[in-house]
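re: that chain from earlier
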Amino acid sequence: MLVRDSELYLYHLALKRQSNYIHSCTGHFIDEVNSVAVKEARPARRVKDLQLCIATETHLELYDVSEGSLKKLATIDIFATITCMRSFHAENHANSFLAITSDSGNLSIVRFERRVRVDDGDDSIILRTLMNEPLSRSGIRRLSPISRIEVDLYGRCLFLSAIEKNKLCFVLNTNNDDRTLAIQSPLEANRPNMLTLDTAACDVQYENPCFASIEIDTADNNEVHLVFYVLDLGLNHIVKRADFKIETSANFIMGLPSLSKYGISSLNSATKESAYDEDDINPFVLIGFDDYILVKDMNGFYNLKVQIPKRKSQLKLKVSIIAHALQTLKKDFFVLLQSNTGDLFKFKVFPEKSDGNRPQISISYFDSIPLAESLHIFKNGYLFANSEYCHNYLFQFESLGEEEERTGNVVTSLEPTKKLNLEQSDTLRNLRVVQKMKNLNPLLSGGALSSSPLTISTCSSDNPSFYVNGVNFNHVISSQLPGGAKSIWTVRMPAEKYHKLLFISYPKSTMILRIEDGSIEELSTTGNPFRLKGDSTVLVHSIGKRSIIQVCENEVRQIIFNDENQLSSCKLEWFPPAGIKVVSAACTQYQLAIGLSNGEIVYFEMDRLLPEDSLHELQNRIEVDEIITSMSMLSGLRSDWLAVGSEQSTVKIFSLKSSNADEFLEVLALQTFAAPVNDVKLISNEQNIELHAGLQNGMYCSSKVNSRDGEIVDIKTKLLGIDPVSISLLDSIFFDDLVAGLGEEEEEEEEDDNDDGEINKQERMKEEWDTGTLKSCLVLHSSKTWVSYNLESLLYVRPVINRTNNPILTKVTNFTAANVKLNGYCALNASGALIIGKLTDIVTRQNWFQDYELALSGDKEEDQEEDESDLEDEEEGSTLKVPAYRTKKIIKIADSKGLMIYVQNSINENRTRVIITKGEKVCSADTTKESFQLLENIRTATACITKFSTNVNHLVIASTGGKLYTYILHTSASERNVEPSFRLKLLHETIISDCIHAMTPFLDTLLVPLFGNLVLFGLGKKQLLKKSISATTPSITNITALATWKNERLAVGDNRESVTLFLFDREEYLFKAVADDTVKRHVTVLKFLDESTIIGGDKFSNIWTLRLAMEYEKKIETNFPHALNRLQDVPSLKNKAPNIMECPYKLSLMNHFFINDIPTEIQVLESIQLSDRPAIIYLGLQGTIGCLVPLLSKSEIIQLKKIEDIISSADEKFFFEQEMQNSKKEAADIDDGQGFRTLRTQRQKIPEGAYSIVGRDHSKYRGYYTPRRNVIDGDLCESFLSLSFTEQTFLCKDQQGVEIANIKKRINSVRMNYM
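^ sequence. v structure.
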């Protein structure tokens, strides 16, 4: 790859995926872990569909609902645009399959599989592609049959439809030999001039599969038809069986179950004898129209009509059906239908016994929930509502709506014109909210509240939300301690479950607290064998079977517990030589190492075979000849290594292997650092020995130690602050719950020791402990507190989120008690308080942010604390709040400490609501004492903050009615025990007679684009005053984005004409156009990277950067503004083509990248998490939060580009390798005389495009409209980590100088150091 010095290279990562879940389906996709081993031994049986797969356009998520909650199992990235997704069951297969169509032009049949990695033992769920059947050209086209998929209820065929004309039917078969799924060539059912609105699969039991569709005939006055297609399995062709003209308002169709199974006659009695057999299946469909629904059969016997109930407040609104869910029972079935007002209706088909059991239909009100894209009912009594624009909810059925049927609030087809009017209610009647999944779609605005930890402020629903990149350290209790606490330790005996003693070290004393029966109290000093006064404690640790070792600066004591676990006596007292102090110590269960101020190390060891806990001192002491600062051994029974850090900037590894007497206490490895070592820790994680060092210059270093010879390799570094780094170890963290988002679950009945769930959890924890999956994490203390841990082959170093008055922790240790059984911690903070809490959430690649909402006072609902996870448990299950406001603009006030303004529009009324937050607190309005202020008769188009020529902030709101409303904003600072507040006072209104979409402060004025001109407004007494009007270029007609650079330059983004760069002439007080783009771009957002470089996004989901060349900059610097007319890049074109040369110069395209989401906000942060370079954070309309990081060195550009090329070419490499292997096998086969190969079934069957899942070419995807330029796709690079070790080895074997470890290290360095 040729790297040019003048180019800008960016690395892209999607930190949070989009959340517009437009596809969903249910099934049984993957077995539980303990059932995988016996899966093949059992016959394939159909199990209940208690798993849910939801998808956006770019990724899939798999959830399990069997336990009554949404438990995430897997997240799969798809580098394509998914257009449709359906699940189906195939014969002789217990698990469900997925049929996916995308812009790759293929029909992809995939299934979920569980895989255990060989190298690290990681158990993960992957998506395995079984086939990629070509359908059409790549891209989304109306003639491509990728818009809709319908599946036969018995998995016999797939019915695919395009928007126009084309329909295909694929017959599915299962090979009896190897039970593999096979697909036949497609059968066409094309109809020219027909537009397909909706399709459905009909229930015909085991007759020929039947499908129905609503189609518009564009050649016949746009008449709407109901068409039935039947696949003849015997003749292997598909025919149009029936065609009915219906009303043009038809917009919804679904298939109904076979009525004959429920004792309902599906044939007309008048024609039953003549034309139809009694065993014939007559499929029925439900069709939704405006204000009514119709049930119709394929033979045209029935037209059952019923009116859709309406709300009394919306009688004039046309009501239509948008979603449905079918629930089949043993003797009955019902359908839940949702209207466009959010109301759920229960639809039933019942036999009219007085008329030969002919079918009749009824509809009744069931409940009201937010608008859903699709509904799913599970067999365990839960309903999932998948919404594109609201949060997703999991409901539990409280009843089936029999009360409405008993009271007569039912409309039947016996009275097809009868209407039912409803009273709107905010209380759920038959459902109860169990869980909520947050969605950010649509995300119109947002902002970065802080860069360390990275905090993004958004507000897609009513309440402000914060997305924080950090590890949650939730506190349970906190108590202020006497000043001067230095360190803290908790102690428990090996046979005990909970910690029993808590030691707190002071400069000249030690405090001991006893933990018992859920309370903490100070241990009595009477008869206490510990050293409490006159010395400072260096280390406290349990040792042996029933001893505690206390290491002080001038003494070491070993305290023995008796048989009743009570403090008994001091068994050992050891003193350092005169004038020498203990500076550091390390301990395991049977070892003790003490570092002295004279550079010597004293080593003790205990004989494990002897019953008494006797420590034996080794007579030969280790001489380091350096000032020892820290020591560490591996936790556990015994450590084979001792790490010693010194002020001479070195860490030495000593051997403690008892099996090798020659190397015992000898230095095996030495690592030199750039600064003195402040702290060091040795830990064991995932069969690796890791060395972690904190330096006095604020650097943190992590490396691995070779378990054979102690060599130190794979060193990673990160700057944590300006203070020296000290390290605390939490060595009993149960990561499985934290990754699954279950860490915050608290036991509701803590007093019940026999709680089954808790017993199961403790048993599970013991099993995990025995199998070694409990992991260690390190808490790093500097100017801020960080956490370091290994997960998914990556090292994470993330800030601590601790919402206390002083979030900086100085020391942390393990803590386990009756009410904190898992992942507990005990800590000291910078203000000297003792904090006890637990880890609840961690950062992973799939879950980069922890999110939480701020509660608003004055709302209709009672204020309640929101949980800090994507999946939230609802305390009030009977109430469901529907968002009443939609955030239009989020503004961060410059030079303020965390002040954010949220400007929201009411969804149903002409009203604007303003919310102001300070940090993570909501400011209350002075006038109403509520958390917001309402502005009546205003609907906001955009807003901004400016000071004009004063020192007071002014909020200017541009309304859709063509007015500018200027408000004076007063805010009060947040003091201790005083909540922050604000006040908005209307100053005046200014009529502009234009609806504007962007404005920005400039100097002491407000820059507003009006009718294609740039107008600078100053502050007047009665209205805003025009101080300057600058004409723009003729092509600019609709300005949608503005960006300024140091009040000198202005970038103007047009809805169609891309970007124009203006310079401000201070003498004339006007803007003058200098450069514009060479192509048209539909700009949505702009931001300056530097004075010559502009980054922006357009409505076609592209992000790009434009730059004014340096040679033009030099000319402008010497000639602007007086000689502007002479500045022409191509003077000859100025007169010949003035429309092309509207500006003297042209901007050059530097970067271009397709993100599959419309950018709505871009912010440039100088540093994220103390990184060494700036970063670009962008927000997408569908909820995406992404990051672009500049790559500064040629080596990292070349390496990351090579990694991307390796992954993007994986499809071709694996497919060619498979073909070569198969050709070798075929050459070795023996001909059986009939033209068949006897070993043909042994051919490998990896479909082409399997490793990109849907077969989409990555370069074409990321360059959907324009070829990608100088942007490396980090999401694709990180997919390397999801491959098996065999696949990683195969991809790297032909690459010179490329190793798996180096690829992982390079990918890890970007996440750890730049984000």
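The CA atoms of residues 283 and 416 lie 22 Å apart.
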